[in-house]
Amino acid sequence: MNFAREGYVFIGIAAALSATVFALALARRSWTLWLLAVVVTLLALWVAYFFRDPQRTGERGPNIVVAPADGKLIMITEVDEPAFVKGRATRLSIFMNVFSVHVNRYPVDGVVRYVQYNQGKFLNAAAEKSSIENEQSSVGIESGAYRILVRQIAGLIARRIVTYSRDGDTVEQGERMGIIRFGSRVDVFVPLDAKLRVQLGTLTTAGTTVLAELPAR
Question: 64-213, what's its fold?
Answer without folding.
Answer: Glucose Permease (Domain IIA) (2.70.70)
